[in-house]
Specification:
Elements (H helix, E strand, L loop, with lengths): L2 H7 L10 H13 L4 H11 L5 H4 L17 H16 L22 H7 L9 H13 L4 H20 L30 H12 L7 H14 L5 H6 L5 E4 L2 E7 L5 E5 L2 H18 L3 H6 L16 H11 L7 H13 L4 H8 L4 H10 L9 H8 L8
Antiparallel strand pairs: 1-2, 2-3
Length: 393
């Protein structure tokens, strides 16, 4: 099916996609987490998204074409999403219509989103069967295993974010790469942080830096501490002050998770101390009295310097500043799962803590992580072999 045929068959902004504005917004948020613009553009191109001004033109219907009039809910949402996306990849948007363009190249029709549009597959409801069909199409077209592996890794990374944001039910690209003949030297797709690394991150957060106020330092410390509770980025940003409460004698947060589900997340001592310190510093600077704090209970739990709600971009910028590598917030969520299980926690309890719909998801996160060396039998085998011992002639 050609691009022209797709355009004639539908006046949709993005053929096959049920929530185009919401999907593009989340893609922009995901790409925005990468500090390097070239990386953002590479990932966008790998997904089949436009990265040039000329291509992005095709995403906005012309104002003088009544047949391309957007549905009321999209009138403002879609142009806003396109503009946001254009800013993230470092270009500008203007107005024309059509299905999602892709980067020029040999596999242009087979980039993920263009393949989905051609086959009328909504990316938000795509399954592993669709992903396998897409990989088969790439194989038939002559894409090398390394190319397919790279493209699959990009799609998998995106769906990790979409699932975390609650826009996708799961990750259809979380496939067994070895069975697909795509396994490389990498043993795991899950970044596993050590306890020492997380402690170093926390220390960096609470260390005053030049130009930062005590409130800035307290906020950074609170953000890192809250992430060690296994929260999603969206959950952290959506917290209100009223969500902090006491239940069963413990300070806890009322966390609003995926699918409108609410769960109680208890604070460990370090998180409680960090959050209490931040709120105390914030209230002192604003001259807030206890009575006034009660009246302002529905204000965001975390505020920026300008008094606005803390957003994903601010989270990513903070973690990039504090860590030597480009640390994704999800790595701290994985840290919670792996550390809790290895410390003896039951999977069902960890599942409840992090808000996984299925315990299988919790188990998958744990099993996909590189095991702690103490969980390996390699040293036992090494001791039996004792290859360093010199044989007696």
């Amino acid at each position: 099916m050609t691009t022209g045929e797709l355009t004639e068959r539908s006046d949709e902004l993005w053929p096959g996609v049920s929530e185009p504005a919401e999907l593009l917004k989340e893609i922009a948020d995901w790409l925005g987490g990468y500090g390097n613009r070239a990386t953002r553009r590479t990932y966008a191109e790998g997904l089949g998204l436009p990265t040039t001004s000329g291509d992005i033109h095709e995403w906005l219907p012309p104002a003088d074409d009544p047949s391309k009039t957007m549905r009321p809910p999209l009138t403002d949402a879609w142009p806003t999403a396109v503009t946001r996306y254009a800013a993230v990849v470092g270009t500008q948007a203007s107005q024309r219509g059509g299905p999602p363009p892709a980067a020029r190249g040999r596999f242009r029709p087979l980039h993920w989103f263009r393949w989905c549009a051609t086959h009328r597959v909504d990316p938000l409801t795509a399954t592993s069967t669709h992903v396998k069909a897409w990989l088969d199409a790439l194989n038939t077209a002559g894409a090398a295993p390394a190319t397919r592996d790279r493209m699959l890794a990009t799609v998998k990374a995106l769906y990790t974010h979409l699932a975390d944001a609650g826009l996708a039910a799961g990750n259809p690209a979380a496939l067994n790469r070895r069975r697909l003949g795509l396994a490389t030297t990498s043993t795991t797709g899950t970044v596993v942080l050590t306890t020492a690394q997380v402690r170093a991150l926390f220390t960096a957060a609470r260390t005053p830096r030049r130009g930062a106020s005590p409130l800035d330092t307290a906020r950074a410390t609170a953000v890192v501490a809250l992430f060690t509770l296994g929260l999603r980025v969206s959950e952290l940003c959506d917290l209100d002050r009223s969500d902090l409460h006491v239940t069963r004698g413990r300070r806890a947060l009322r966390v609003h998770g995926k699918g409108g589900k609410t769960r109680v997340v208890y604070l460990h001592a370090a998180a409680e101390e960090a959050l209490t310190g931040y709120l105390r510093e914030r209230d002192a600077g604003a001259g807030t009295t206890p009575a006034r704090r009660t009246a302002q209970a529905d204000t965001p739990l975390l505020l920026t310097r300008t008094g606005n709600r803390y957003r994903r971009q601010a989270v990513w910028q903070l973690l990039r500043r504090l860590s030597e590598d480009s640390l994704h917030p999800h790595a701290l969520r994985h840290f919670y799962v792996t550390t809790a299980v290895e410390a003896g926690a039951q999977l069902v309890h960890v599942q409840a803590d992090v808000g996984h719909t299925s315990i299988d998801t919790t188990e998958q996160v744990y099993n996909n992580a590189a095991r702690d060396p103490s969980r390996s039998a390699v040293d036992l085998v090494g001791d039996v072999l004792d290859l360093t011992r010199e044989e007696t002639p």
